[in-house]
TrEMBL record:
Keywords: Cytoplasm
Localization per Swiss-Prot or TrEMBL: Cytoplasm
Species this protein is from: Sphaeroforma arctica JP610
UniProt keyword Cytoplasm present: yes
Gene3D superfamilies named among the record's database cross-references: 3.40.50.880
Protein name: Protein DJ-1
NCBIfam families: not_thiJ
Gene Ontology terms: biological process: glyoxal metabolic process; regulation of cell communication; regulation of signaling; response to oxidative stress
Major localisation: cytoplasm
Cytoplasm is among the record's keywords: yes
GO terms under cellular component: mitochondrion; nucleus
Domain DJ-1/PfpI, first and last residues per copy: 4-168
Length: 185
């Protein structure tokens, strides 16, 4: 069973966070939701509280994971972009050529942690200029896959992003099976 680590930080976007967890689990990926700051419930951007499965410190010691997932929401994205624990996880992930998935303001971590330099990415429009300035190749596609880096734009593209994560990690056939009962357009 492929594994994914979804990082959960205060102020993170709840739709993006749960879309990734839900769709990866539908795709039979073993998902660990890891609290950046520990095991307490995390208040997300619209005051929905989500309880992590364990702390990031504990989850990181059980890695590696096939995929590391960083949802957006400005509060959470800034916390992840400032975290040395996230930095070392992402650096290790990139070095081993394993998947990294980000959405919305999540790609702030690419810039601050020096990950995926020069790769093709998308993001929420509010950090577009930052990514261009940092010399990423910017796309406005709803989901962008460049090698093992998978990015997307916001809450409205989160389900498509989740399906792309399943397609990359598990395969197209499984992604199609997961997609059907979601009643996508
Ligand atoms: C979240 O709750 C706090 C404290 O009750 C409140 O000040 C804030 O406006 C709420 N945020 C949203 C997006 O509802």
């Amino acid at each position: 069973m492929p594994t994914a680590l979804v990082i959960l930080a205060p102020g993170q976007e709840e739709i993006e966070t749960t879309a990734a967890i839900d769709i990866l689990r539908r795709g039979k990926v073993e998902v660990t939701v890891a609290g950046l700051e520990g095991t307490d419930a995390v208040v997300c951007s619209r005051n929905v509280s989500i309880v992590p499965d364990e702390s990031l410190e504990s989850a990181a010691s059980k890695g590696p994971y096939d995929m590391i997932v960083l949802p957006g929401g400005m509060g959470g994205a800034k916390a992840n972009a400032a975290s040395s624990a996230v930095k070392s996880l992402l650096a290790e992930q990139e070095k081993a050529d394993r998947y990294i998935a980000l959405i919305c303001a999540g790609p702030l971590s690419l810039i601050s942690h020096g990950i995926g330099k020069g790769k093709k990415v998308t993001s929420h429009p509010c950090i577009k200029d930052d990514l261009i300035k940092a010399e990423y190749e910017y796309s406005e596609d709803r989901v962008v896959v460049d090698g093992k880096l998978i990015t997307s734009r916001g809450p409205g593209s989160a389900i498509e992003w989740g399906l792309a994560l399943v397609e990359q990690l598990v395969g197209k056939e499984t992604a199609d099976e997961v997609r059907a009962p979601l009643i996508m357009l």
